[in-house]
Amino acid sequence: MITLEMADEKGVRMTEDEKFNLITRNLQETLGEDKIKAVLKERDLKVYWGTATTGRPHVGYFVPMCKISDFLRAGCGVTILLADLHAYLDNMKAPWSLLAKRTEYYEHVIKAMLKSISVPLDKLKFVKGTDYQLSREYTLDVYRMSSMVTEHDARKAGAEVVKQVSSPLLSGLLYPGLQALDEEYLDVDAQFGGVDQRKIFTFAKKYMPHLGYKERAHLMNPMVPGLTGGKMSSSEEDSKIDLLDSSAQLKKKLKKAFCEPGNVEENGILAFCKSVLFPLSKTGEFVVKRSEENGGPVTFADYKALEEAFAKQELHPGDLKAAVEAYLNCLLEPIRKEFDTPELKKLTAEAYPIEKKKGAGNAASAKEGNTEELSPSRLDLRVGKILKVDKHPEADSLFVETVDLGEQETRTVVSGLVGLYPADKLQDRLCIFLCNLKPVKMRGVMSSAMLMCASVQEPRSVEPLTPPEGSSPGDRVFFEGHKGEPDEQLNPKKKVWEKLQVDLKTSDKLVAEWQGNTMMTKLGHVTCDSLKHAPIC
Fold first, then answer.
1. For the whole model, what pTM was predicted?
2. Residue 486: inside a domain
3. What residue spans of 247-316 are helical by DSSP H?
4. How far apart are CA 494 and CA 435, in angstroms?
5. How much is the average pLDDT of 168-195?
6. Residue 478: beta bridge partners?
7. Are residues 30 and 145 in the same domain?
């Protein structure tokens, strides 16, 4: 039988060293260990963890929940900040109209998660950001901090957390300062978060003393890869498992999860075992139930043993996924049951309303007067391999390319690259193609996709975009922060492509972006060779 709950150490008196070891175990980095030890000599530590109430929490949230359980077992006073104001300031990821509902949803779902791993709620304090961040004192401190923080430092501090765009809103620049001030106004000794928060933590260490407040310690969890191998993200559907996913949805997502035999790097399945399942195991073990013909059941005493077996390919990805599926269902079932009420179903629908798009033939939507959302998720962008390049028989400036886009049949693509990009460099190259434009006849040859290139006029230069290494024809290309299915075909009368194309360009790091949102596949970023700040078309 699968057992998932924290070992109960109630009544066990811990030494200062034992408390310190429990507080800091499994962390990637700790800043201010001396401060933690000094506090523990006098009293229990006070810690806070904040979460911006934006996208729906996913199973990756069990990573901080495990550490919160550790803090409580070590006797810490723990505050969970529902950072509603932060959620709005981060490029309005949570619209003001939905903020209250999303904050309420977060509190319910986090409490359900903690109960599912046997964490007593009476030891926790939940605080909503706007309950104190709109006060006179806090506001004056925001102004005081803004008088000493440069734009450079504010932007640098939020680089890993706040959505980055070429012309940032002032709200995003305020974000790191507010997070630093929270340490004082929540009256804590340490702030806990992911290692992606490190720049904000060092910002707080630098500027809080300038305001006359003490410097705090900072505890950082490792970032757990998503199921596709990159960061687990609320905004990228395939990268995460929602806490309310059914067992069937869970099985489907795990089946698609990246888990290459022998590959222990960027493996979201293994990372979840390391950061969640082993720490939550009452016995400290991980059990894989296999059929006798596949080697029979096997028990791993610690994560190192599991990783070594997988690296040596002694454990098949399918068996690992099946074991993780069983453990996850054990974790999620109490949460599903708690949210299976009319009240919480209504709250979920109000906090995260389904986006309605007026598709072709959707008369009901048209009657309601809904407008189509202008989002890059509507673009059907895919990795394609150019199998053959020929000169157009009727046009000196055009190439005719035969492209494998992961479909049963190849597509023909006409590109105006003659004299701008060598044919031999296109041959057998992986590129990015826009596949849902209306096919168009170009000088007698029908073109059914568009080759995506970065391009500058002075001096004239064109470079095809390049997918991440290891990509395959048909791999989907998406934009970080935008989810949804692409249109079956873009309506040329609506000028969707033309409106979206205006904000497509490369960054100073040669990464393709739309309004600062990275273009990527499950394997990483889409780039170009050398053209910076170049329009993409």
1. 0.64
2. yes
3. 247-256, 268-272, 278-280, 303-311
4. 17
5. 90
6. 520
7. yes
